[in-house]
Write a structure and sequence with these properties.
The protein is of the alpha/beta class. It has helices at residues 54-61, 129-149, 166-177, 190-196, 210-218, 233-237, 265-269, 278-284, 286-301, 317-325, and strands at residues 13-18, 29-34, 42-52, 75-83, 95-99, 109-113, 117-119, 157-161, 182-187, 203-206, 223-228, 242-250, 272-275, 309-313, 332-336. Helix 2 packs across helix 9. The longest helix is centred in the middle third of the chain and has 21 residues, at 129-149. The protein starts with 12 loop residues before the first strand and ends with a strand. It binds NADP nicotinamide-adenine-dinucleotide phosphate. The site of NADP nicotinamide-adenine-dinucleotide phosphate has 28 residues, from helix 1, helix 2, helix 3 and helix 10.
């Protein structure tokens, strides 16, 4: 989908999601504020679709230090509105998808570093805007977790917590595409389990059934890789699922409750504790992030990974947050910023 770029003039106004204090979803508002201008090395995007991520719930609740007021939104899809000094290789009006890692994506205009912008042309031209927005953070993260952090090899057994979520549904499909022999999902309800089964899992079980399911599926050998974005009580029990030299990858804390491991823990258990943080990869390994970002979008454009997007108007952003934090959501919420 394309839309005509507006000629940016200093002082242009736009609608943006904002919160001025930490709290429940009611702190979210759609405010009219000044549209950003691109700084050197940045572009601005006329946003059409913007994803909602669990991380933004955590920002809103004050679980990470962000300045107030905060303008949420870690990803956006639209057309190039203006180019900052030094930016080459992008043209005004061209369709793009971008990680907006400093926030600001849930808005009609966002400024973003050009290094995190991908042109939706060539093999990506077929990608619809909502799916692209739904893929940016989630599919890129799933890919990084499975490969760079998890070192998945063909034939291995993978366990995915929060299996029906945005990252979870992508991780199951990517694990299959990367040659995993067995992919076990874990969800908090039978309805979510039924939903998740469509995304390539061999089985999807409840949290209290993980141990038995892994034992049954692997003949007692254990899982090679566990993807843990949940934390809380279940985190302490995950090493026991692993085969010798299995990897436990921590990349989230949806339960808002961490556990402590001793430094000797990997030694005593023949296991690896690994981690993945998208923002950290952006800062310290930007070329790797870009490779994963482009690969993630190509997987979706090529039909090898399916992203189930639920599109809401910008004003309904609080509903998306509520669904995510009450564990009611499946797949991915995307805001239609122009609706
Ligand atoms: N490290 C990174 O760079 C990075 C990047 C992207 C995402 N993440 C993390 O990956 C996870 C998935 O992100 P997402 O945006 O795709 O979210 P999501 O998986 O669609 O939603 C979060 C899921 O976490 C599970 N969960 C477990 N305990 C929960 C609790 N106490 N409250 C709420 N949810 C709980 C729920 O699934 P069940 O009800 O089935 O358990 C819920 O559906 C999040 O934890 C996120 O922070 C990390």
């Amino acid at each position: 989908m394309t839309h005509t770029p507006t000629a940016p003039t200093p002082g242009d106004r736009m609608r943006s999601v904002r919160f001025g204090s930490f709290g429940d979803p009611s702190v979210l508002e759609v405010a009219e504020v000044a549209a950003p201008e691109p700084q050197p090395g940045q572009i601005t995007i006329d946003v059409r679709y913007a994803g909602v991520n669990f991380a933004e719930v955590m920002f809103r609740r004050g679980q990470f230090p962000v300045d107030l007021p905060h303008f949420p939104g870690l990803e956006a899809v639209g057309t190039v509105r203006a180019l900052g000094e030094g930016v080459t290789g992008l043209a005004l009006g061209e369709r793009v998808a971008a990680l907006t890692l400093g926030g600001g994506g849930n808005a009609e205009v966002v400024a973003v570093g050009a290094e995190h912008v991908v042109r939706l042309d060539g093999e990506l031209a077929a990608l619809d805007g909502a799916s692209a927005a739904g893929a940016l953070c989630n599919v890129t993260t799933a890919l990084g977790v499975l490969t760079s952090a998890g070192h998945l090899s063909p034939g291995e057994t993978v366990v995915v917590l929060a299996a029906a979520g945005g990252v979870g549904t992508a991780a199951a499909q990517l694990a299959r595409n990367l040659g995993a022999a067995t992919v076990i999902g874990v969800t908090s309800s039978p309805a979510k389990a039924a939903y998740a089964r469509d995304y390539g899992y061999d089985s999807v079980v409840s949290y209290d059934r993980i141990q038995d399911e892994v034992a049954e599926r692997t003949g007692g050998a254990g899982a090679d890789l566990v993807l843990d974005s949940v934390g809380g009580a279940v985190r302490s029990s995950l090493t026991a699922l692993l085969a010798p030299f299995g990897r436990h990858v921590v990349f989230g804390n949806a339960a808002s409750e961490d556990v402590t491991f001793e430094g000797n823990h990997p030694w005593y258990t023949n296991s690896s504790l690994a981690g993945y943080n998208l923002g950290g990869v952006a800062g310290r390994a930007p070329r790797l992030l870009r490779t994963h970002l482009e690969q993630a979008l190509a997987e979706v454009a090529g039909g090898r990974v399916r992203v189930d997007v639920k599109v809401l108007p910008l004003k309904d952003v609080a509903h998306a947050h509520e669904q995510l934090e009450t564990r009611a959501s499946t797949g991915k919420y995307v805001l239609d910023v122009r609706a």
